[in-house]
Amino acid sequence: MTWTSTIFRTKAINADHPLGDTGLSRVLGPLDLTLLGIGAIIGAGIFVLTGVAAATQAGPAIVLSYMVAGTACAFAALAYAELAAAIGGCGSAYGYCYAGLGELVAWIIGWDLILEYGVAVSAVAIGWSGYANNALEAVGLGLPAVWLHGPAEGGLVNLPAAAIVLTLALLLGVGIRESVRVNGVMVLIKLLAIGVFLAVAVGRVDPANWVPFMPFGWNGVMGGAALIFFAYIGFDAVSTAAEEARHPQRDLPIGILVSLAVCTLIYILVAAVLTGVVPYPSLNVGSPVADVMLRLGHSWAAGLVAAGAIAGLTTVMLVLYYGLSRIVLAMSRDGLLPPVFARVNRRTQTPLRVILIVGLAMAAVAGLTPIGEVAELVNIGTLAAFFLVCVGVIVLRVTQPDLPRPFRTPWSPLVPLLGAASCLYLALSLPWVTWLRFGLWLAAGLAIYVYYSRHHSALAAQHS
After folding, report:
1. 158 - beta bridge partners?
2. Domains contained in the chain, number
3. Secondary element (H or E) of residue 16
4. What is the pLDDT of residues 391-434, one digit of tens each?
5. Quick check: is 419 in a domain?
6. What is the mean pLDDT of the chain?
7. Which of 258, 237, 233 minimizes the C-alpha distance to 30?
8. What pLDDT was estimated at residue 373?
9. Which domain holds residue 323?
10. Is 424 exposed, middle or buried (0-12, 13-18, 19+ CB in 10 A)?
């Protein structure tokens, strides 16, 4: 078999049996999937990045930044909805690329998603640790600094960060039904916190704070969009629930599109109110929403916002961790990763080994290393996945025009082309060092593919 035929071999559309028995439990409905999407999207973006991006990148025009990033995500979301309904499987963009673009592209995007979700969970865990310790300090139980930082920052271990990852590992290991219930409760808490903020602050908006509206120009708006794109990661994790949805062909598009629409509206409202209440330069703080509540003299509302932030960050980690475990499961089934990851526990109906192994790895990263700018890898990884999903819709429309598509992306190929172009444009707005780190990660992945995955692929076994 030639090298070319190897890297471009594709998997049959029905290879993952999206409507059959995969060992996972089919318990999720459209509301569950929508709450998963909201749980993944609303987190650090609204409680942290909105203020930072407004102060350093876009000013009051951060509202436009959210519109730009949300529009780019909408194009990608429509592409995800089509492929999730037509192809299914728990591999998300990895599985779609395997069916449409070939094994090498599928491996690259799968490897990329492992980076995206893994780094995101670790980075958010570190942010969660700060909020959690603030809550402990409020009741006189704050942890000493040595238990809040890893060795590189003069401490021993970031104990809360590692602990929350391991706690979520236990929750996900118990079962998807229990995990979804916890996610639903947490989503309601953070939506309540956001609602209280809007109700309290909207009456204190001063339009003078919106002048000048674009102090950093259009480049600032686009820089803000690239930065707050982190706020939108996670809606694609809904598509990894295809094998646990009761009616995936109908419900996955609902969960993906509704959660993105709801969260985009919330982001725009919060950004507009936040920059209208106080001058934008003062928003460059770790918890801008709670800080504004304190300035307005509403300490009780600040406490509720802090609780909402903790709940929000928890659901982000939970859903991304869930998505990561399903992608690793899908890649292992296909032979691109070792078979030890392919087993589903019969009692819990979850990939227990995957959950525990990746959980230990992410807990170690969160507890021992400073994430810092490496978190920007999450943005470029997300944009790469979105870009390839948009391309995949176009390719499959040509190569498999008769494929049943319960949901069709409107105005194709225009919408997927706009999605691909938007993602590429935002990716080019990221710093060059982010591209360098991303290139190093992909180089390591290609080495693994060449020396292991290509030879152990299930398709390779079929051909031999």
Report:
1. 148
2. 1
3. none
4. 999 999 998 888 889 999 999 899 999 999 988 887 887 788 88
5. yes
6. 87
7. 258
8. 57
9. 23-459
10. middle
Q: What is the DSSP letter of 350?
A: B
CA distances for 246 relative to 27, 113, 197, angstroms: 6, 25, 36
Structural contact between residues 421 and 464, judged by C-beta atoms closer than 8 angstroms: no
Q: Which 3 state secondary structure label does DSSP give 28?
A: strand
Q: How confident is the model at residue 277 (pLDDT cuts 50, 70, 90)?
A: very high
Q: How far apart are the first and last CA of the chain?
A: 9
Cβ contacts of 147 within 8 Å, gap of 6 or more: 155, 156, 157, 158, 159, 160
**Which whole-number Å values give the CA distances from 124 to 52, 136, 378, in the listed order?**
16, 18, 11
Note the pLDDT of residue 161.
Answer: 93
User: How far is 120 from 132, CA to CA, in rounded Å?
Assistant: 18
Q: Give the percent of the chain with pLDDT over 70.
A: 94
Residue 293 lies in a domain: yes
CATH of the domain at 349: 1.20.1740.10
What Cα–Cα distance (Å) separates residue 200 from each residue in 58, 60, 68, 365? 24, 19, 27, 38
DSSP secondary structure string for all residues of 214-277:
-TTHHHHHHHHHHHHGGGGTTGGGGGGGGGGBSSHHHHHHHHHHHHHHHHHHHHHHHHHHHHHH
Nearest to 330 by CA among 172, 25, 113, 79: 113
pLDDT at 107 over 80: yes
Q: Does the N-terminal peptide bond of residue 151 adopt cis geometry, omega within 30 degrees of 0?
A: no
For the chain, what's the residue count? 464
In three-state secondary structure terms, 345 is strand
User: Within 334-407, where are the H helices?
Assistant: 352-368, 376-399
pLDDT at residue 101, rounded to an integer: 86
Whether 10 is covered by a domain: the verdict is no
Q: What are phi and psi of 350, to 5 degrees?
A: -135, 155
Query: Do 260 and 45 contact (CB within 8 A), yes or no?
Result: no
56 DSSP assignment: I
- Cα–Cα distance measured from residue 89 to residue 239, given in angstroms and rounded to the nearest whole number: 8
DSSP secondary structure string for all residues of 97-160: HHHHT-HHHHHHHHHHHHHHHHHHHHHHHHHHHHHHHHHHHHTT-PPPGGGBS-GGGTSS-BHH
Q: Which residue has the tokens 């392919």?
A: 342
| Domain assignment present for 294 | yes
Residue with tokens 């997927």: 416
